[in-house]
Amino acid sequence: MIESNRQELKESVIKQADQSVDTLYHYLRLTSVSAQHLAIPETVTFIADLLKKFGGEVQVLDELGGNPVIYGLFPAGEQGNSERTLLFYNHYDVQPPDPLDEWESEPFEPYLKDGTLYGRGTADNKGSLMQRLAAIKALEETEGLPCNVKFLIEGEEEIGSPGLPSYLKKYADLFQADACIWEFGSKDAEERVELFAGIKGSAYFELSTKSASIDLHSSLAAVVDNPAWRLVQALASMKDQNNNILVEGFFDEIEAADEELLQLVRNVPFDKAALSEPFGLTRPLITEARGEIPQDALMLYPTMTICGMVSGYIGEGAKTVLPKEAKVKLDCRMVPGQTGEHLLACFQRHLLRHGFSDIHIELIESQRAYRSNIHDPFLNLVKQTAEEAYQSDVVLYPNSPGTGPMYAFNESLHLPIVSTGVGWAESKAHAPNESIRMKDYVDGALHMAYLLTDFAAK
Ligand SMILES: [Zn+2]
């Protein structure tokens, strides 16, 4: 067992984090936008070389199609505990930089100003990978790597990780580990470090209806039914004005929350002002009208959201027209237990029962929710080492309100997962002027170094 000298390790992490910045810049210059198939082969080569340079064993997996999945292994050092393995999940793809005119610097040219580094992928998710590698290097230069470390770095996270589940299934043995650190996380507006032990799922639907082969003169509305009205009425039958979801069976599969989970959920902070002010909200929060606790809603309740709708004419001035068709995109953020297939069946049955057999519904994509066992000691270990490394408050969320492929990880690997990352409250992931603060970059690397050390000792 390795004696951990925190001070020596801290100095080593600061040095390695500092030395890793040049490489991070190089990584940020690669325009690896998965949605536009940009620079994927060169990014894969870059990462494979990078892992090798840091002393890792690498396999590039690509025979199942999609952008390659990269496997990396850093075996425990001589004095380390080779019985323990931590898996890091990262992704090398980024979101498109649009809208370009809102960037104050070049999106793919890293720009450092007052300790903040700007560029597409700084927060989501290139900074995290470099930070984790810096921690590994710092450990290797001091006490040796205390346990085995594996990486799974994929290139389709920003487009919903369509290929990942088949790679996980095929390579479950290769990626086998005792616990996993997920790809994202940030500090909130009060400088608290946010950790997430799970994630919501998502099911994305398209509903459409058509009543003619061409748009018609609206005088014909006297006799011809209107697809926009049909769709609006169908939607209105699915959710009432108080935001109750009225689709029969919608809540059937949900796993009940026990007392301890409820307590954990209600212990996390909720800052109404941090939500209403920056976003200029004009309506009261729906949880207020419903007398609900917002934390419960964010983490434990599913949603049903109209993401967009189109029909007929919405240009300038007037155009009297009876549209030939209407379409809506709808997403449901799901909680553990729910499946997109079940929701699709519920929607189909609901539409038939309510007289909307003309409305077609399709499940475009879905990802199930996952929540780690909240009693798993790994959760506390991540939290305690974060407190020590960041010297600030840390909040453990049982799950994030967002979505990612955690369910597929657990299905193949069966392990606790906690997400943490390099972001801050103003990181603007997916938006123009994405950034990280270099202080967080170093503190986060220190967190990973402490975590690996203590994880190996358990
Ligand atoms: Zn992202």
TrEMBL record:
Domain Peptidase M20 dimerisation: 198-354
The entry's keywords: Hydrolase, Metal-binding, Protease
Keyword Amino-acid biosynthesis: no
Protein name: M20/M25/M40 family metallo-hydrolase
InterPro entries assigned to the protein according to its UniProt record, in alphabetical order: Cyt/Met_Dipeptidase, Peptidase_M20, Peptidase_M20_dimer
Pfam family, one: M20_dimer
Highest taxon in the source lineage: Bacteria
